[in-house]
Amino acid sequence: MFEDTDNRGQVGIGTLIVFIAMVLVAAIAAGVLVNTAGFLQESAEQTGQQAQGEVSDRVQVVTSYALDTDGTDPTSYDELNITIRKASGSDDINISDITFTYLGPSTTNSGTLGDLTNDRNAVSGNADYLRNESDRVQFTIDVDGGDVGATDELQPGTEFQLQLTTSSGASTYIEGRIPETAENGGVVEV
Predict the structure, then answer these.
(1) Cβ 159 vs Cβ 82: under 8 Å
(2) Helix, strand or coil for residue 117?
(3) Residue-wise pLDDT tens for the chain (190 aa)?
(4) How far apart are CA 148 and CA 2, in angstroms?
């Protein structure tokens, strides 16, 4: 039936070598794919955590007031008094790492709340960290030269903006306006 049995065994060995080579190539390719998938998963987790932090690790403003503390001009306000808490779902927030950017009628400046250590106190909780949603920290920004770098007293009818940015990059914006009918030399909610 089979006339040439010697060549037939060589063909079978050749086929076996090709099959083993294909299995090795497939195993190497699978290893590369698994390694790449692991790397991509790790990168995606890091990106997801950063994005979540930028959205959720932010502060909420509880109250904001403008005050006239120096008494030199009874129609102007020279300090902003702001009370904040951490937003729902936020991780612990280090108060010293929060940056502020102030844009007033004639001045723009920025700094960190860590620079305001003498003008910062805990209403409830700790003055350095917001750990619970019930923690409150109050800080004061002197807009009359101290913390914003130039005289920028707020007159009735003037507007200002304040941006608070946590270390994870989440921002909270405060846009305030001193009412035209604000009392002289007092306190006004903004």
Answers:
(1) no
(2) helix
(3) 556 555 555 667 778 888 999 999 999 999 999 999 988 888 888 877 777 656 678 898 999 988 877 666 667 888 888 999 988 888 888 888 899 898 888 878 888 888 776 677 777 777 788 888 888 988 888 887 665 555 667 888 888 999 999 988 888 999 988 888 766 667 788 7
(4) 99
Q: How many CA atoms lie within 13 A of 146 on its CB side?
A: 14
Radius of gyration of the chain (CA): 32
> Which strands make up the sheet holding 171-177, listed edge to edge?
108-112, 99-103, 159-165, 171-177
The tokens for 108 are: 């723009």
Cα–Cα dist 132/153, whole Å? 34
How far, in Å, CA of 51 to CA of 184, rounded? Answer: 45
- Whether the Cβ atoms of residue 22 and residue 56 lie closer than 8 Å to each other: no
